[in-house]
Amino acid sequence: MKSSVYTGMALALLFLFASCGSVKKTVYFQDIEKDTVQQVLQQYEVKVHKDDLLSIVVNSTNPELAVPFNSPVVSYQIGGNPYGQATVLGYLVDKKGEIDFPVLGKIYVEGMTRNQLTDYIKERMQSEDYIKDPIVSVKFLNFKVSVMGEVARPGSFSVTGDRITLLEALSMAGDLTIYGKRDRVAVIREENGERKIMYHDLRSARTFESPFYYLQQNDIVYVEPNKRKSQQSEINQNNSVGTWVSIASLLTSMAVLIWK
């Protein structure tokens, strides 16, 4: 009777320790104390890169003056459409970081924020006496990020606003699966002719301090699988009748030896 009680207690403790270990591996931002207020240090604005597709619309109190500045110069197809082609019109940033804008000609836009480009076009129109009261709207048309690895819904996601965080991208992909390593979430970025990779530990609040916390156009987020997932993959690769027969035979032999 006593041995049964001791066995039950031991199993309960083992289950408790295993549960604590699982929590530490899966809970996000474990080092944040309750009711903590953190200052947002990063004032991030997305910048224009090569191959970006920009929508630039010019308006004025005199609509006729704005007409020459609203001629689309690039036809860019996004995705496939079995019922016809979905075409978006805009200005494609070329390999030199320039766009060819009506009337104003070539404009070097790489590295500018949306607001900086807006102000630049306004200033040119006013200083060159084209429009005295221009209203310029600039938007990104092909801002997307990709999320792959151990997430519920991997894929590429379009961003409608000016910015997206690492956590928002993971949320769009349905969050990490139970097999995703919370301490090995990589952001892969191509910038200035270099490919940069930075890993993040989502269990720590230091994720918010990462220079890659705010994602850029065409960033890739990759979640590594844990050992359990890798082991399952190996088992599936060796999923043959002969393998399982051998395992069953071994288990039977061990059971016979134990019960003797």
Run of helices and strands: HEHEEEEHEEEEHEEEEHH
CATH architecture of the largest domain: Roll
**Major pleated sheet:** 5 strands, mixed
CATH class term of the largest domain: Alpha Beta
Helix-strand blueprint:
Layout: H1 2-26, E1 53-59, H2 63-66, E2 74-77, E3 87-92, E4 98-101, E5 105-108, H3 114-127, E6 135-140, E7 144-149, E8 155-158, E9 164-165, H4 166-172, E10 180-191, E11 194-200, E12 214-215, E13 220-225, H5 227-237, H6 241-259
Parallel strand pairs: 7-13
Antiparallel strand pairs: 1-3, 1-6, 2-3, 4-5, 7-8, 9-12, 10-11, 10-13
Structure in words:
About 7% of the residues have low confidence. With 260 residues, the protein is α+β, with helices and mostly antiparallel strands. The protein has 2 domains: 105 residues, Outer membrane lipoprotein wza domain like (Outer membrane lipoprotein wza fold like, Roll); 88 residues, wza like domain (wza like fold). The strands form 4 sheets. The protein has a 5-stranded mixed beta sheet. The protein has a 4-stranded antiparallel beta sheet with strand order 2-3-1-6. The chain is elongated, with a radius of gyration of 28 Å.
What is shown here, in short?
Residues 144-223 form the SLBB domain. The chain is an alpha+beta fold.
Key phrases:
cell outer membrane; four-stranded antiparallel beta sheet; five-stranded mixed beta sheet; 2 domains; 6 helices; Outer membrane lipoprotein wza fold like; single chain; elongated; about 260 residues; alpha+beta; transport; porin
